[in-house]
Amino acid sequence: MEVITKYYVETDLPIAKAAEAIAAEQSTGTWTKVEKARYVESLAGRVIEAEGNLVEIGFPEELFEPGNIPQYLSVVAGNLFGLGSIDKVRLLDVIFSESLVRAHQGPRFGIEEARDILGVHDRPLAGTIIKPKVGLNPKDTAEVAGQAVRGGLDLIKDDETLTDQAFCPMTDRVEAVMAELDRVETETGKKAFYAVNVTTGADEILERAEKATDRGANMVMVDVLTAGFGALEVLSRNVKVPVHVHRTMHGAMTRDRHHGISMVAISRLVRLAGGTNLHTGSYLGKMAGDVGELDACRDALREGWYGLRSVFPVASGGLHPGNVSANLDGYGVDCIVQAGGGVHGHPGGTADGARAMVQAVDAWRKGVSAKDYAADHRELKAAIEFWGD
Ligand code: RUB
């Protein structure tokens, strides 16, 4: 069996030569001929197609160490990016063999398991990011989180740069937020996830996550590209709560359509490594996104894949109640729409912003435009007047 990789390539070489150079460099070759025993050739990469700017290569699955995602990346996304003979190259997709996929547990908590915890099965989830993204003390963080859940949101998350700084120690923050969420649940019956960012060095990320869950955290978050896929998999294999995966730094790899690594490839790796939720971009928002790629990420996270549980795609980045429906049209029911500024910047404050997000999701479910639904939903009306739709 093979692992199939697809690349976009720009080069002055004949495309077949460039494809051979990539296949060699990422398997058994180098820039010049080196005599080798014949049996080594069984691990050589094979050019399947080289046409125009598209290259497809099959790597024998024996080249990959089962279970070792960092090593997978060294093969399919390694030295090739630095080959002087190639001007630009983008890893478009990677199709892993069944045995390599089955070497991973994948998400311990997938979409269904996360829904079972919340008791929400028939609609998209709506969430927010604590804003300001850094600076609040634990008490004020809890206040903001409590307001968001009182407004009906299902998920409150730390932002990607908030970890365990002196101005907001993680353990104090978790205790304060979870105590507030417990109060809200007791008063209103509304259950919500709080995704605490446990991103840190590989040597202590599991210990940090366990400190959070020991204090009641019901979800952890990791910045997968800065912490590493290995760190994500350590969490998903050992921590007894769902894992929210932020993709900060992805733009350095995904943004150039002609060089880097597509979000589709990253989506497959996050599912292998066991994320429950993954930011994959918004059909309408502040971050640049390509519809074809968004669709491919959505499908990579949710389609059947040798028994691995499915993963929530997360639409975030510049969302507000007025553009929720465009994102839900793309992602459908099994997704998370989340807004930071689009909740906390609401003219009526966080709780009203949360209500407006919930109303925007309800409008979509009913097949009614947000504008029409706003006629008798004041919080949504105020949001649309403020940000448009
Ligand atoms: C969004 C936010 C997230 C972005 C990252 O805040 O804080 O970090 O979602 O973008 P806001 P992406 O809602 O105020 O824009 O989700 O595309 O990775």
Unreliable spans are none
Bound molecules: ribulose-1,5-diphosphate
* Number of spatially distinct domains: 2
CATH class of the largest domain: Alpha Beta
What CATH architecture of the largest domain would you give? Alpha-Beta Barrel
Output the CATH topology of the largest domain.
Answer: TIM Barrel
User: How much of the residues is beta strand, in percent?
Assistant: 15-25%
CATH homology-level superfamily of the largest domain? Ribulose bisphosphate carboxylase, large subunit, C-terminal domain
Question: How many strand units?
Answer: 13
- Tell me the strand order in the biggest sheet: 5-6-7-8-9-11-12-13
Q: What structural class should be given to the helix and strand makeup?
A: alpha/beta
Arithmetic mean pLDDT: 97
- Rg estimate, integer Å: 22 Å
Termini gap: 49 Å
Describe the structure.
The model has no long low-confidence stretch (mean pLDDT 97). It contains 17 helices and 13 strands. Helix 7 links the parallel strand 7 (193-197) and strand 8 (219-223). It has two domains: 2-101, 2-Layer Sandwich (Alpha-Beta Plaits); 111-387, TIM Barrel, CATH 3.20.20.110. It has helices at residues 15-25, 69-76, 98-101, 111-118, 138-150, 170-188, 205-214, 224-227, 229-238, 251-254, 263-273, 291-302, 324-331, 341-344, 350-365, 370-373, 378-387, and strands spanning 2-11, 46-51, 54-60, 86-95, 125-129, 155-157, 193-197, 219-223, 243-246, 260-261, 277-279, 312-315, 336-339. It is globular. Helices cover 40% and strands 17% of the residues. The longest helix has 19 residues, at 170-188. It is an alpha/beta fold. The strands form two sheets. The protein has an eight-stranded parallel barrel with strand order 5-6-7-8-9-11-12-13, surrounded by seven helices. The protein has a five-stranded mixed beta sheet with strand order 2-3-1-4-10. Ribulose-1,5-diphosphate is lined by residues 129, 159-160, 247, 279, 281, 286-287, 316-319, 339-342.
